[in-house]
Amino acid sequence: MQTLNVDLGDRSYPIYIGSGLLQQKELIQPHIQGKTTAIVSNETIAPLYLEILHQIIASDENTDIILPDGEKYKTLEIEQQIFTKMLSARCDRKTTLLALGGGVVGDMTGFAAACYQRGVDFIQVPTTLLAMVDSSVGGKTGVNHPLGKNMIGAFHQPQCVLVDIDTLNTLDDKQLSAGLAEVIKYGFINDPEFLDWLDSHMEKLLQRDKEALSYAIYRSCQHKAAIVAADEREAGQRALLNLGHTFGHAIETGMGYGKWLHGEAIAVGMVMAAELSQKMGWIGLNDVQKVKNLLIKANLPIAAPKEISADQFSQLMSIDKKMQDGVLNLVLMTAYGESIVTSDFDQEKLKAVLKQ
């Protein structure tokens, strides 16, 4: 097992990464303060791991809250089910929520924890690669709105993150590749050495080699923890983590939530960011091709859906959390393995990328 720390002063918390961690109650029990717990999961994950989690939390009073599975259910209406179950079970301010599942479950559980009685503890137990390396770390929680992804939410940090890589054994290949998009993102942001490692180890990652997965998850979480510690509420540096996300969120919203997996949309978003960076003269065509080649190796798409027009893209991107005072900020590449947050890009060149 490896342990990382997200350094946020008195709200710091550990990320445990390893194999067989869902059998180790000594990792999770110290982070449960009250007598009551509520485990939030979904219809896919609950049959696989819910009973195992029951055994290690050993709660006096636990409530299971099982949600439908899928991005299209990440709504205020479904979120209400969590609150209703908690109120019916008379959960109090010392109740600890546990998120058992992927990014949707983690985001919704965290948002419920932020809101219920104005804030209760929660623990992340991610079971997808994407959740392990991104959404479970950093305290971003929330739900989608028909007009925009993740536009309703709160910052609320977990008590700990328990990453048991054995849960990836039940993850389908498409979801695994989607998670690799977020792993690759960290390399594109500021780690060219990691990009080289990913290029040479992609086959092992796709074959679920435990050593390769552990390293990729650890290094990804290392990047995320450092950025969150430096900029918890995304006032500056943390916005780098949105590489590809403004384009990608437009794809998810425009196509309808769940039609494209988050990681698939982000992969295409990173290609579009690279193409705009090339048009700005910041990277070369060979760099754009290297971006595409690595994503193709991970079995990820590199072309935006034709169903979304350039005008629709532009409209969807204008409803984005990176908009400030009417100005859109994008994460663009200045080299292969180096990115910046900027609003200093040519709007005509952005239009050209969207048309392309």
Across the major sheet, the strand order is 4-3-5-6
- Rg, Å, rounded: 20 Å
By DSSP (H or I, 4+ residues per run), the number of helices equals: 13
Shape: globular
Classification by helices and strands = alpha/beta
CATH architecture of the largest domain: Up-down Bundle
Helix content: 40-55%
What does the model show?
With 356 residues, the protein is an alpha/beta fold. The chain folds into 2 domains: 2-170, Rossmann fold (3-Layer(aba) Sandwich), CATH 3.40.50; 173-355, Dehydroquinate synthase-like - alpha domain (Dehydroquinate synthase-like, alpha domain, Up-down Bundle). Helix content is 46%, strand content 20%. It has 13 helices and 13 strands. The protein has helices at residues 25-28, 46-57, 76-88, 103-115, 129-135, 173-190, 192-206, 210-230, 245-255, 262-279, 285-297, 310-318, 347-355, and strands spanning 2-6, 13-18, 36-42, 61-67, 96-101, 121-126, 140-145, 148-155, 161-164, 323-324, 327-328, 330-335, 338-342. The longest helix has 21 residues, at 210-230. It is globular and about 60 Å long. The N and C termini lie far apart (46 Å). The mean pLDDT is 95.
